[in-house]
Amino acid sequence: MPRKSKAKRRRSRKTGISILGVAETAMLLNVATNAMFNNSLMGFLSGPSSGAAAGTYKITLRELMGQYGAANDPNKPRVYGPTAAAGGHPQTFAGAIGYNIKRNWIGAAGQMILIPIGFRFGKAIAKPAINRTNRLLTKAKVAKTVKL
Length: 148
Fold this sequence. Notes:
mainly alpha
């Protein structure tokens, strides 16, 4: 008996960037940066340095990239000056991140669980409106770029 020929597989078309997916990812990244760096996502990415003398545990990307490290030892960037050691404060970025995680992990873990659940329920409730919006985006010929 001859083998059946396989039909060509249909490739799925590339769909646009999901606005709801981007929003969910941004919220989760905000929770992660709050937990680790004690700073919002936008504050972490574009914020000014809190400065070594400011006495905060807020860390920015600019600080992590080495712009505000210790002048005498570039291998060990400092968050605080030497006087902070007497108060028991961490002086390295890793120490400050560890301190922030210890202080913020419970709230961050809860948010990391609840945000995706909330988006899942929200998408289920708003499914008719989302479908209508995506149909309108398809008619406007922008569905390959963006969708809801």
